[in-house]
Amino acid sequence: MLKTRGASVIVVMTPAAAEFVTPLTFQVLSGNPVVHNLWGDQQPRFELPDQARRRAGGKVEHVDVAEMADALVIAPATADLIARLVHGEAPDALTAVTLATPAPVIVCPAMDLEMWRQSVTQENLAKLKARGVTLVGPESGPLASGLEGPGRLAAIEAIGEALEQVLERRQSLAGLRVLVTAGRTEEPLDPVRVLTNRSSGRMGVALAEAARDRGAEVTLVAGAMNVPAPAGVTVTPVSTATEMKEAVLKAAPRAQVLIAAAAVADYRPARAAREKIKRGSAPLTLTLEPNPDVIAAASAKRKAGQTFVGFALETSRGVANARAKLARKGLDLVVLNAPEQGLGGDTNVATLVEARAAKKLPRMSKRELAEAIFDRVLELRRGRRRGRR
């Protein structure tokens, strides 16, 4: 199917796959050598476009294949293979290629009914989704074991459609500069203590990764985080709300899209103690003063054509408060989440709030939410361009 659509195809096989179909069969069908062991041809001779060839170093077969790929489709993906992908194992050519490729990965599960139902399998699939892997299938129907239910490989047409969508998404932000804020600010009380919050930085990192993987030039203004900043983006580390404001105002004029996912402290101590505050018998009273509003300051200076997205964490009247924030700060979109959903965890239940619409999303990984946010940002930008015409 891919060959008939004009794609150049390289087949990578596990040892188990070679027990079912010979590598020669796939070589004939694909028109390229089949990669099926880690000690293959040191100078692979693949029939590929020049653009793909330029991405390869020409020295190690499985690394070259990983670098040349525009996308990697694993079909079928067994429960065993899925588990190995989750743990980053690379004992064979396929897992090594998967670990080495910067290309988007599409995993198409296929296994027996009870294997599919196992909680560990579902946990592994959730981890892959959280890393940005696209899952297709499985479908329900008769299985090789004689059982019937979910576990059948997705239809070839469904896999092809998913691949086209992934490749389209891959370039959807190409040529755009995206500015993301992430993590939490820390306001000093004294030399050893800070006033802060529970934000982990996972949402901002997911947004930065998604923008990077869609072809954008990404700047991440990062406060304190529990997760590392992603590779391939420009990182500006900050500590306090004032530092974050300065960094955002410096970077914002160049950005077409600004997404403020950082949890900025609303208040800071009016005066930080120069020495550690000692415990005493009397209550301690702190005087706090408001911090600068980072996204409001940036929005006040926004230029035509920029798209601004904020986040809101509300304990009551969520949509109403988010919509008020949208209007007050001149934003295009506010992502609303509740405290128990938005802080620290790997998943979220969010609502995309606009001036005249609010769309509640199901529970999803933060990477999936990042993709949904960018999908909506692109729709807003396309709508704005149509409006000008």
Provide a descriptive summary of the structure in words:
Helices cover 37% and strands 20% of the residues. The protein contains 15 helices and 19 strands. 37% of the residues are buried.
Descriptors:
single chain; 389 residues; alpha/beta; Rossmann fold; 2 domains; 8-stranded mixed sheet; 3-stranded parallel sheet; elongated
Q: By helix and strand content, what is the structural category?
A: alpha/beta
Averaged pLDDT: 90
CATH topology of the largest domain: Rossmann fold
Give the low-confidence spans: none
Tell how many strands the DSSP assignment holds: 19
Q: What proportion of the residues is helical, as a percent range?
A: 25-40%
Widest beta sheet: strand line-up: 10-9-6-11-14-15-17-18
Question: CATH top level of the largest domain?
Answer: Alpha Beta
First-residue to last-residue Cα separation: 39 Å
Describe the sheet with the most strands: 8 strands, mixed
Number of domains: 2
Task: Describe the SSE topology.
Blueprint (H helix, E strand, L loop, with lengths): L14 H6 L2 H8 L19 H5 L6 H8 L3 E6 L1 H8 L6 H8 L4 E5 L3 H5 L1 H12 L3 E2 L3 E4 L5 E5 L3 H15 L6 E6 L4 E4 L2 E3 L6 H12 L3 E6 L11 E4 L3 H11 L5 E4 L6 E3 L18 E3 L3 H6 L7 E7 L4 H12 L3 E5 L1 H4 L4 E2 L1 E4 L4 E3 L3 E2 H23 L1
Parallel strand pairs: 1-2, 2-3, 6-9, 6-11, 9-10, 11-14, 14-15
Antiparallel strand pairs: 4-5, 7-8, 12-13, 15-17, 16-19, 17-18
